[in-house]
Specification:
Rossmann fold, 2 domains, seven-stranded parallel sheet, 42% helix, 16% strand, globular
Length: 379
Amino acid sequence: MTTTLRVVVDQIVAPVPGPVGRYTRDLSRAIVEAAPKGCQVEGIVSSSLPDDYERVLREVPGLSGLYKSSLARRELAAAWQLGITTSPGGGMIHGTSLFAPLRKHDRERGDQTVVTVHDVLAWTHPEALSAASVAWQKGMMKRARKHADAIVVPTHALAERLQQVAEFGDRVRVIGTAPRSGLVVGTDADRRAERLGLPVEYLVVPGTLEPRKGLVDVFAALGRQGVPEVPVVVLGPETWGDQHVAVVAEENGVDAARIRHFDDLDAPDLAVVIARALAFVAPSHDEGSGTSLVEAFSLGTPVVHSDAPAFREVSAGAGLAVPIDAGGADYADGLAEAITSVVSDRTLAERLSIAGHDRSRAFSWRDAGDRVWQLHADL
């Protein structure tokens, strides 16, 4: 008898797959690869175009098939929020987000539903989301509290935050992430660097101008007297609302000519950008997974990061942590000191590079896939 685990893979073909789409793809591949003998993996997807179905099967090879909903993504999201639609029957269902068929089921018959929570922004920073998204996430969290057999989160830090939002007791499980697939520096690295126009030396900073992301704090730090005037590559959109990266940099005393920005690079290009940087600066005030740190660690790039709980957990001392405290000038001063130290002290940079690369070995998608199967077996 074959046991089937059904994984909600719909985010892969969402209009904007984003980080959850990458997570869904890489975790689904790992679940397929880790499938025990006598087990198979089927995908669950909303009603989509034939090309989308083919894309899922191409990006997650080894799926036994796809359960195709009769509803398109938006309608299916609304229906699942209300619990009024059918799902692919009983058995084991694994949601790579809150987008999952959460409803009453019989665990004694082997039916189980697991969902994944990547953040609690709908509660902590609702202004970062649309009103519709906030309402949907809060509605699905209520359904998860009532019907989910387990809730997966990427860090213990997020697990603690989640328990403050909705009490799940012992149903929360921590299963870490890993670098996105394809994030390796190939033999064509020089050609890619030239095409991207990368400076010889530079810092890499992920994020947006949204205050909680900390990019403005980095610009404030770089504008301090005595901080090396190295170029900065920003990984993220060039604007946030009516604010523009170059303008905000100038306002903080950083010449706009020093700023480059890239948004949505493919994995090989991103690998080159991060690997060649003097340092990877992760200034976010609030994070759920810390995946960006793991990616930088895996490429041997020295990391400077805020002391947000998820970052501290993932880094485990392999990066240079800067206290956020109340933010503002004190945080910018701390970032300025840390950045100056890494750029000016090559011994420190080398030590951080080695420590980070060693730390990255603690994270792998295969391990995550094994843990997912173990979780469903425990249930």
